Amino acid sequence: MDLAFIAEVFPKLLAGLPLTLSLAVLSLSGGAVLALMLSGLRASSWLGAQFANFYVYIFRGTPLLIQIFLIYYGLAQFPALRHSLLWPLLREPYVCAVLALMLNDAAYTSEILRGGLRAVSSGAIEAAKVAGMSRPTMLRRIVLPLAFRQALPAYGAEVTSMVKATSLASVVTLMEVTGLARAEVSQSYRAIEVFLCAAVIYLVLVTLITRLVHWLEARLSTHRSPALDRSPA
Amino acid sequence: MGEAFTLLGFGPEGWGHALLTAGLTTLAVSACAFACGLVLGTLCAWAKIAGPPVLRRAADIYGVVLRGIPDLLVIYLFYFGGRQLVTTIANQFGHTGPVEISGFVAGSLAIGLISGAAQAEVLRGAFHAIPPGTLEAARVTGMRRWTMFRRIIAPQALRTALPGLGNQWQSVIKESALVSVTGLVETLRAVSVAANSTELPFLFFLAGGAIYLAITTVSGLVFRIAEWRAMRGQPAMRVGG
User: Fold this and answer.
1) Could you tell me if B115 and B214 lie in one domain?
2) I want to staple B124 with a disulfide (CB 3.0 to 4.6 A). Which of A53, A170, B41, B45 is the partner?
3) Contacts of A190 in chain B (CB under 8 A)
4) How many folded domains does chain B comprise?
5) Are residues B106 and B199 in the same domain?
6) Are residues B36 and B141 in the same domain?
7) Which residues on A lie below 8 Å from B175 (Cβ)?
8) Exposed, middle or buried by CB within 10 Å (0-12, 13-18, 19+), for B234?
9) pLDDT digits 0-9 by tens, A17-73
């Protein structure tokens, strides 16, 4: 291992970290909003539920990379779209990558949310109803917080998998960490050193996120902590 | 519409044959990768359950590292890194110039390595779901370790592990699309080539998506049937297990 070379490459790759993070944050927040909308749709009507199921089936049944290609290369097939006002946006690889990641994340997140919602006990809902809460208040105060806590471990895994998935944006020319690594390798031909450096960056990032989620889990389940178990009920 | 059918069909103008071969290549890469993962996963699960501390630690580190690195990067490491390694070694022995390595082999190994980390967790969970009484009974009747593994542990653990392994197979199929970066002509690569030469990218990427969807749907059904068969004669499923 050539330490001087690694010390030279590492900062170069770190320069891609802001782009990696912005891709992840944008697509996760967009995906979360879409997932909430899908859950609403699922609860609204039979047809809505069928649509939500179909959406999830399509996006979970195909590779993310083909979804990115379909949006980035595929949309150019339609002249009407190419001449529309949206084209300057849809031509951008950044926009396409975020769009694909977001749509993909929504499918997975809505399934996680579904699991979380199912775990909300009917007792809690009954209690809220008996206390005279309106439906929105009940959602905001009882159902969503309980579902969120329940879904947190699975959602944490989804967050890390999205952070990793941003590496696919490099395939449509975006210069995030993986893209920079790829460019560096084509110059230096030292694939092992460069890709290992990139791997370390992702590994640290993912470890930090995992820690954060664990901390959040512990914080949000104080009612299960041993200190409280001992107190009289 | 008619043009689309001609292009996707099996006629002289059509890409049908190319796409079918590519779909089979996707299946072959996925199968090899899944098998690699199953072997690695079994070894790691064993190391975590009953291995010596050093191996247990190694298995843990392997899991954490592979779960923290993007799949694409692992494939790059195997393909380009492997080429670098093989070239360096070959040059030591007097060979000159770069040595090409197979995208199929590098890709299967890379995805196998990724999947192995996840399969280890599935198998470990399945082992812990085995009623301890059956293990004790096997020990008491004097079964040897291998017999016990073959007759008592494997059949019970595999039954519980089936849904988890099914999920893993689905992820492996989707990850196999990444092997296209090595130039291996699997589904994604084939539809990219077709999209380029026909200038109908939407049509062909959609067709590619349909191929993956067909594969994941059919294998989902196969796994569900397998689960149902494995559960025959079992008392009603324990909820939440």
Assistant:
1) no
2) B45
3) 84
4) 2
5) no
6) yes
7) 63
8) exposed
9) 999 999 999 999 999 999 999 999 998 899 999 999 999 999 999 999 999 999 999
Residue B22 lies in a domain: no
Is position B154 within any domain? yes
Among B residues 74-103, those touching chain A with beta carbons less than 8 Å apart? 74, 76-77, 80-81, 83-85
DSSP classification of residue A120: S
* Same domain, yes or no: B76 and B122: yes
Interface A–B counts its CB contacts (< 8 A) at: 123
Q: How high does pLDDT run on average in chain B? A: 91
Domain interval for residue B220: 185-229
Phi and psi of A30, rounded to 5°? Answer: -60, -40
Alpha carbons B228 and B230: distance in angstroms, whole number: 5
Domains annotated on chain A, with CATH: 3-218 (1.10.3720.10)
Distance CA B208, CA B214 (A): 10
**DSSP reduced 3-state for B99:** coil
Q: What is the pTM of this model?
A: 0.90
> What confidence tens digit (pLDDT) does each residue in B87-142 have?
999 988 888 777 888 999 999 999 999 999 999 999 999 999 999 999 999 999 99
Of the partner residues A63, A74, A166, the one whose CB lies closest to the CB of residue B201: A74
